[in-house]
Known about the structure:
Keywords: Phosphopantetheine, Phosphoprotein. It holds the Pfam family AMP-binding. This is Gramicidin S synthase 2. It comes from Clostridium felsineum. It contains 17 helices and 27 strands. It is α/β, with parallel strands linked by helices. The protein folds into 3 domains: 8-188, ANL, N-terminal domain (Rossmann fold, 3-Layer(aba) Sandwich), CATH 3.40.50; 291-430, 3-Layer(aba) Sandwich (Rossmann fold), CATH 3.40.50.12780; 434-538, GMP Synthetase, Chain A, domain 3, CATH 3.30.300.30. The strands form 6 sheets. Strands 7-6-5-3-4-8-9-19 form an 8-stranded mixed β-sheet, sandwiched between helices. Strands 12-13-14-15-16 form a 5-stranded mixed β-sheet, with helices on both faces. Strand 13, helix 13 (301-310) and strand 14 (315-322) form a beta-alpha-beta unit. Helix 2 (32-48) packs across helix 3 and helix 8 (192-206) packs across helix 9. The longest helix is centred in the first third of the chain and has 17 residues, at 32-48. The radius of gyration is 24 Å and the shape is globular.
Amino acid sequence: MSKYLLQDYLINSANMYPDRVAIKYKEKEVTYKQLMYNSLCVANMLKTLKVSDCEPVGIYMEKSDLTIAAMQGILIRKSNYVMLDSVTSPVKRIIDIIKHSGVKYIISNVRQLQKITSDTKCDKEYLKNIVIISTDAGYEEYEKYFENIIPLSFCGEVYLKDVEKRAINQDTAYVLYTSGSTGIPKGVVLSHLNAITFVDWCVDYFKPTVEDRFISEAPFHFDLSVFDIYVPLAIGATLVIVDEIVQRNPLQLIKYLQEEKITFIYSVPSLWIAFIKYGKIKKGDFPDLKSILFAGEVFPPKYLKTAMEYVPNAGFYNLYGLIETNVFTYYKVESTDDIKDVPVPIGIACENSEAIIISDDGKEVTETGVEGELCAKGSIIMKGYHNNEELNKKSFIVSPCKRHGGALLFKTGDIVKYNEKKEIVFVGRSGSMVKRNGFRIELPEIEMAIYTFPYVEEAAVVDVENKEGKLCICAGILVNKADDISIVNLKHHLVKKIPSYMVPDYFAVFESFNRSVNGKIDRQYLKKYFIDEISKEEGK
């Protein structure tokens, strides 16, 4: 069991490599010494405000070195952080998360304060109870909206011994919010030990050095960012944070990776598909890249093979896990010969983790080719869902394996099987959760958002794949009057309710739904309908 806490990666590296660059953001380079100082200033502010032990503190800022300093300062002070999506989520969703998490303090900046207070649907009465710690000037005009706005002070000497409060590694380190089937986002509570188990495995397995350069491509409220932030901190390497504008343009991002001599990148496969389709990459474009990690969705075989041909000197690794588990299985793609017409395996369990396949009758699957639900065991597994005991009970089962002595297993909801090499192969997703571009999406949450639009009587959302294997989200709706519905207006309505990546790609208005004998909407029929419609559209 690890003796460390998550912030100790920074503390140790700041002692060993004070003058090395910890973070590069735009033209700004921040050394480990500077990052440590900024983190201590955050911790000192929390001490001044008398923030309680183990209290959640929100972070509502775009990605930057200060955002990482805020995380570390919160941890140093024995609190935990709740990352709030500053880019894709509408304000209502942010407020819902603030309410659900119980956050009373938020570290933010003027850009985000302007965004949240200017929204007409914002619950301004609730905001009055929130204390804001502002990282920049110009906050005065927003003071009327909050109980208090306090500027974060970066002056004077601050020492670790004066502000540090030590947690234990089972204490909560951070809470990540993800799509919830009830329409309310779910808070996944992760401990120091959960994160450290993953980070330590990454350091041991990938063997990065202080000379490596990592790229921060994933949003900080997304679980892939745990690797981006903490693996470099653990070894004293440099993390390069991508500017939002650069990140949206494949050509600019490719150039940025080249100029910054990035050696490690961890992303969803969609990024590489964009590089191949729109970035015009060619063999030899990434001479410095040595490790390409991908997760969050299936990497279509034809694109994976092309990527490997274009970056022949890099290792390609398929990492598998959920927010609740982080990564707990992995597979190294040794060569393009490993790539067939089906996705590569998700592999074998990481050290300190165990991957178990459980059949429908509740027994462990050991035979090749037999399908079952993948379950996880080990210190990688989350503490639980915040304020959701019902879901916690549904998500864990007592292991049927005698060797586990009655330990709990986390049910991933993914159907898998063993291949002839005893590697785990992903088959599909059970239930109503899908992943797109690495983001987890609960289809019922989209339905709940559609129901808030006037004239909608019923809604059913399904996922299908087009001819290229791209996941498409499709919504069938019943309305009071067909003439009263505008799909354009519905889309505008939805972006105010849910993140943009959850808005359906296709809509269809029906007079009635096909139903099963028990009265439920026939979703398989709906899928077939959209597959046919998409095929017709793509054939034009």
